Amino acid sequence: MSVEIIGLLGFFALFAMLGAGVPVAMALLIAGFGGTVILSGWQAAAFTLSGQIFATATVYELSIIPLFILMGNLASAAGLSRDLFDAAYRLFGHFRGGLAGATIIGCAGFSALSGSSIASAVTMGKVAYPEMRRYNYGSKLATGAIAAGGTLGILIPPSTGFVIYAVLTEESIGRLFMAGILPGLLLTCLFLIAIIVVTYLKPEEGPAGPHFSMQERFAALFRAVGILIVICITIGGIYTGFFTPVEAAGVGAFFTLVMLIIRRRFTLPTIWQISRETLRTTGMAFFILIGANVFAPFVALSHLPEGVASFLATLPLGAYGTLIVILIAYTLLGMVIEGLSLLVITLPIVFPLITGLGFDPIWFGVIMVIVLEMGLISPPVGVNVFVVKSIVDDVRLETIFAGVMPFWVGMIACIILLILFPQIALLVPNAMFN
Amino acid sequence: MGHAKESGAEGRDHGHQYPRSVAVKWLEAALTLIGGIAVFAMMILSVGDAALRSLFNAPIFGANDYTKVILAFSVAVSLPLCILAGRAITIDTLVRQLPPSIGRALHWLVSGLGAFMLFYVAWRCYLNGRDAAMFGETTMLLRLPLGPSYYILSVGMILSGFLLLLVKPAHGSNP
């Protein structure tokens, strides 16, 4: 039996286990270990297993994950998300669809403090949804804006998605973070356009909110200044090279902790809750990473990436045709496989293929993260939709899925723009590192 | 409708009952305490190193080595906490379509398989830790021993395996 066939059988076993409900990390561990045993023998597989696990748990760069998760949880506990929403609400709430727009802007701002889309959706959802209901917003637009806005969490730096992509592909975390800035802002604008279109077609979905005086607007903006300072320190520090992305995570968490103290919300129960939440999410990310790092060597040993590349080279698709096939496959797979899992399962095959076609790995990282975002709101496994459902009891799941569709189209538009104009992603990292 | 089980920041489960005995509560508290101290220590170390290096050109010697060791402890305690909170990502789209009896049987089979893998990983980490201690493997700069990091990961894996076995499918529903 050829090694490629063993590789394919490994994938088959992996998907069978996933279908049977085996946790993704365990399925990756079992398939990766079992496949390596067949290809290289028990002894080599056993060394790979423990070696990869130890390597994953002691990579200095990965300390960024718990620290940015800590930062997001501290920001949430300090009430920074409410301040962001309030500022955007007072500035734009009086427009048609303005509250939904404020939710998107609030999510984008909170995304610069948190690397998790789920945290962004939960935090902003709790703040924004009651306000939107109060002003008779349609359930579709209200929930869709929260679920879609939350996905900005993994595109706008800091982003857990970028960290995991960087670790799996040995790319620079700093470059990827910088590459996410402009596409993140672009996607935010596209989401706002989606809201304008929806409320133009159905004005009843997003009626205009109340007017606020200039004094009230400035007061709200002043409260949000602290958050902007933390964001500027974190992102600006990376951009200027004042500190590394890993240090930026620590610095950002520290300043957010200072804000928690200034706002007199620093209590032992709060810190306990923040620690527990940070560790739980950290465990989730590391379980997946550990599984991925055991599975990836098996894929490499099977020579499957080379086999797939050779097969695609025989098709008359060209580089962009192949890219489009890959993106369509990801979009479809993202509907049935959770995004992060999809990333770690497929990257060992897709990444060599993409770089072999001459595409920029940083640019592709941004595209991948947007595809993951689409998966987060695509039926039937759109995690963000389920997260929103968990905080919005009075809306049916189908309504939320319908509500995210305009934003889903916005994501497609963003990918098309990035393919047409790769500089959107590459301008900032090139300016920084060149 | 099926979905990927990943509970989000609320820590809600989706059809599973997670163990909440006194022993488990104490275990969770102990892990949270250790992990919380570790994560905040990493934060302070990171800030201190960046500030001292950038402002006084005097970075903390071996800060990366300390971070690596603390990270290993953080990861080791975070894994069982993740299992306990029901955060291990599972794609249960197909399983939820099955009749409850078959779903429950499959749940125990899957949990057993996952736990067996985690126990084997723990065993391998223990063996590597023993070798690291025997051969005096250390970090690059500070020469901190690697053995304890392997051992704590081994403990984390064992606890995760046991907790995975303790998770029960909710009565009358699919896991």
Please give the structural blueprint:
The complex is a heterodimer of chains A (434) and B (175).
Chain A: H1 3-19, H2 24-40, H3 42-57, H4 64-77, H5 80-92, H6 98-111, H7 117-134, H8 139-151, H9 160-169, H10 173-201, H11 214-240, H12 245-262, H13 268-301, H14 304-314, H15 318-333, H16 339-356, H17 361-377, H18 383-391, H19 397-420, H20 423-433
Helix pairs in contact in A: 1-2, 2-3, 2-13, 3-13, 4-12, 4-13, 5-6, 5-11, 6-7, 6-8, 6-10, 7-8, 7-18, 8-10, 8-18, 8-19, 9-16, 9-17, 10-17, 10-19, 10-20, 11-12, 13-16, 14-16, 15-17, 16-17, 17-19, 18-19
Chain B: E1 4-5, E2 16-17, H1 22-56, H2 63-84, E3 90-91, H3 100-134, H4 147-166, E4 168-169
Antiparallel strand pairs in B: 1-3, 2-4
Describe the model.
The complex is a heterodimer of chains A (434) and B (175). With 434 residues, chain A is mostly helical. Helices cover 80% and strands 0% of the residues of chain A. Chain A is built from 20 helices and no strands. Chain A has helices spanning 3-19, 24-40, 42-57, 64-77, 80-92, 98-111, 117-134, 139-151, 160-169, 173-201, 214-240, 245-262, 268-301, 304-314, 318-333, 339-356, 361-377, 383-391, 397-420, 423-433. In chain A, helix 4 (64-77) runs antiparallel to helix 13 and helix 5 (80-92) packs antiparallel against helix 6 (98-111). By secondary structure, chain B is mainly α. The chains are: A mainly alpha (434), B mainly alpha (175).
Q: Which terms summarize this structure?
A:
heterodimer; A: 434 residues; 20 helices; globular; B: mainly alpha; two-stranded antiparallel ribbon; 4 strands; elongated
